[in-house]
Design a protein that fits this description.
Blueprint: E1 2-7, H1 10-22, E2 42-46, H2 52-65, H3 73-94
Antiparallel strand pairs: 1-2
Helix pairs in contact: 1-2
Length: 98
């Protein structure tokens, strides 16, 4: 058995498992997958050592297919807060409160 990934991103782990199985690579069932609400990291492990190089290539393909934002998380939160403030101001103005 060879370890391929440890992550808290459950969608990445699930996507990798699906991609590996689609390529005929046997994946070890994940015991920690039963608790979706868990914040513990999840792992992806393959059964055969000889599939490891191909599994890592598939992991890179899956990761490169994920959308990547050009803005930092802090900037996205700031933008969302600004948007909510403007919308609140507009609603208060329309309702005659301001």
């Amino acid at each position: 058995m060879r370890h391929v990934l440890t992550t808290q991103d459950l969608s990445l782990a699930h996507g990798l498992r699906v991609a590996l199985e689609a390529e005929g690579i046997a994946v070890v069932p994940n015991a920690d997958a039963s608790s979706i609400a868990s914040h513990a990291p999840t792992t992806v492990t393959i059964l055969r050592d000889e599939d490891h190089i191909r599994a890592v290539q598939i992991l890179r393909d899956v990761q490169s297919a994920l959308p990547v934002s050009k803005f930092s998380p802090a900037l996205r939160i700031l933008g969302l807060a600004l948007l909510l403030a403007v919308l609140s101001l507009v609603l208060l103005t329309v309702n005659g409160i301001l």
